[in-house]
Every structure is written in C-alpha cells, then in structure tokens.
histidine kinase
Amino acid sequence: MSDEERRARRPQSMSRRYRQGLILVGVLCVLATLTAATLLFQRSYTERVDDTLHRLCATLAAGYTAQGTGDPDALAALVPGTGLRCTLIDADGNVLYDNQTTAPLPNHADRPEVQAALAQGSGSTIRESETMDRETHYYALRVDTPAGVQVVRVGQDVANIWGLSADSLPLLICAVVLILAGAAVLSWWMTRRLVQPINRLAENLDTIEADVPYEELIPLARTVQSDRKLREDNETMRREFTANVSHELKTPLTSISGYAELIETGMAKSEDVPAFAGRIHKEARRMIALVSDILQLSELDSTRGGHPRTAPAEMTPVDLAALVKETAQTMTVNARKAYVTLQYDARPATVRGTRDQLVELATNLCDNAIRYNRPGGHVELRCATGPDGCPYLEVADNGIGIPQESQSRIFERFYRVDKSRSKETGGTGLGLAIVKHIALLHEGRIDLQSQVGTGTTIRVTFPKP
Ligand code: ADP
C-alpha cells in the first residue's frame, strides 16, 4: 500500500465530524426558522393590509354614496392623505378620478377587481408592482350614484416575500453568524464531553465492560473484553503447554541419557546392555509418539486459528461405516496384545469432514478403550445415523472406567487419571485433547458415559451432512 493510500485510509476525526454536524444542524435550523417566520409574517401582514383596505374602501364608498351626488370631487374630498391609491371608475371602465395622478388613465374595464365589483358588488386582486420586491393590493366596491353605477377602488403597495426577506437579510446574516459562533463553541464543548469518556475507556481495557459510558458501545466493549480474555486464556494455555511439554520430554530424555551413560562408561554389565537398549528404545518411542501428538495438535491449532470455527471448505463426505471397519482392522493387533476383543457395528453414516482427522479420532478413542481395559475385556466400535438424522461414532468398552470427578478434565492436554498406567501403556496425555480438537473442527458434540469398574462409552455426534 502506498503512502498516499495509507493517508487516504486514515480514520476521520470523530470530534471534527460531530462538530461539523452540530454546526450544520444549527445553521439549517436558523435558516428554516427564519424562512418559516418570514412566510408567516408576510401572510399575516398582507391579511392585515387587505383587512384595512376593505374597511377603508367600505368607509369611502359609504361616505361617497351618502353624499348622493355621483360627483368625483365628492369622493376626492373624502380621500385621506395617506399613501393609499384611490380611484373612481364608471361602469364603462373610464377613470373618473385618481388621487395619485391627474394625467388621463387608460380604461380600467379589463381590471379583474373592477369587473368583479361591477358583477358581484366587490372584488379584489393583487398585482406585481414595477419593482420586483413589491406588489399592489386592490379592493373595489360597486356604488350606485345618481350618475349611474360606479366603482370605488383603493390600492396599496405592500412588500412581498422578497421585499420582506431583503428587509430581514441583515438580521438573517447576523443570526447566522451568531449561531455559527454559538454552535462552534457549544459543539466544541459537547464534542469534548462526548469523546472524553471514550478516550478514558481506552486507558483501562481491563474494566472496559464495567466502565462503558454509552450503551451503543456495549457490543464493542464486550468484544474487546472477550477478545482480551481469550488472548489471556490462550497465553496461559500456551505457557502451561510449553511447561508440560518440556517436562514430558525431559523424563524420557533423562532415562535415555542415564542408560546411554551406563553403557558408554562400561558400568553396565554386558548382559544388561540389551535390556538397557530396550529401555532406551521404549523411551525414544514414547518421545516420538509425544512429538508426533504435539505436531498434530499444533497442526489442528493452526487450522482452527485458535478459535472454534466452521468446517474448512476442503471437507468432503466421509463414509463412517468404512472408516470404522478400517480402524477396527488396524487396531486388532493392539487389542490382541492386550487380550481384549475388538468388534465393530458399522451402520450407514456419512459425515462431512476430513477423513484423516476422523481416522485419527476413531483410532485415539479405540486405542484408549483397549489400553484402559482388562485382559478379557471387550471393545466395540459403532457408527450409525441417529433418529434425528445426525451421524455418530461411538466407542464402548467394559474397562476400568473414569471416576466422576475426572470426567470433565480428561479432554485437557496432559491430564491423566492414572499417570503411571498411561505412561506404561504408551500414552502421551494428548489423545483425547486431539479427539476434542477434531470434534470441534467438525462441529461435533462429545458425550461421555463412564463408571469406574464397569466401562466407558464415548460418542461423537456430528451435524447432518
Ligand atoms: P493418554 O495418552 O494418557 O491415554 P488421553 O488424552 O487419551 O491420554 O486420555 C486422558 C486420560 O483419560 C487417560 O490418561 C485415562 O486416564 C483416561 N481415559 C481415556 N479413555 C479412557 C477409557 N476408555 N477408559 C478409562 N479411562 C480413560
């Protein structure tokens, strides 16, 4: 990855994003509020203007009608000297009087408010002014005078929404600037309050779950905590394992070294040499078995990545029945040596898995059933598909059995119920740990039934293929 890419991938600043968000929200709120306020104000303002226009026009029309002359001058005398525009129009649309101009005005018959007043008695309209930011509101009333039907019309220029906005623009700018400044300070303070507990959290990861400041962070804290625990457990396990391995290797090595020294220095009588060589051979075989189990466990560990994981993609359907037959045949020699009868009952069952690992699992279980047995004992290897459709593999013996208190521990690495018996029979203390590992890789479940003096049955149930 180039430096540029790495820089581009750098995480964003949470404080900065949060601050920007707050400021943006602040500004948007101000703009929205001011727009809504301006709109509402303009509406109520024009309503009031219209209302005043109506009342003024009605007063003018009433005064003018009361005079009973139909003379425009009579209306001119009534018109107030305000900025109002007041016009008198006859039934043909001719302008008889306008208080803002003496120049002749064009015919007003086409004006909607005039047409409406002549037809319905009153009419109103709003027209754009010459300037963009203003509009003129007109209200017209029909009056019946001796001179005939006429229309009294009043009009007033009113600032429209643009005009009002332009008026409030300085206020708007001031408000935005103030809000921006306020939002900057407030957001800085709030961001600090938000981010500080998170920073503090990172300082003490041991109590992360108890100290978590926001409920949204609980999943993260949980993951961190469990990850740490897993790492610590792994570390402890690794340390214990190394210590155990060293110890297990040291014992045979010490014997080998001792016997070899006796032979080397000539202290061993010549008739003892074959026996010593035999012991050296036996200890070396034990070491080879131990090293090969360790290698196997470490290989399984690397497949598993230290975590129980779903089965790897290379798993294929494995015929358990064929596997059971094969294992039974391979173990027959061992069984004979231990004066144990070995039988199998292989019913159709298929497991999705790695064949070599499943062979190892069956062999280890079978080997234990033979080794922890008595002369004349019996071992049976079974496989079948359960009523729930799950295939299983089972090894049952009528051997020495496992005491209740040890049953939960026998799958631990190097745990043995009877250390000397295990060593005597060539056990490494890792067989069941390997079984557990392989079962885990296949998402299998191990069930153990055992009673001292009666025997042991271990069943591994696999998921449906
Ligand atoms: P080992 O190499 O010592 O046999 P394992 O991991 O295979 O190690 O087994 C752990 C211990 O569990 C054994 O030392 C033994 O005490 C006990 N054990 C395992 N299988 C049986 C069994 N079928 N009957 C009685 N005890 C058993």
The CA atoms of residues 334 and 429 lie 18 Å apart. Residues 14-67 form the longest helix (54 residues).
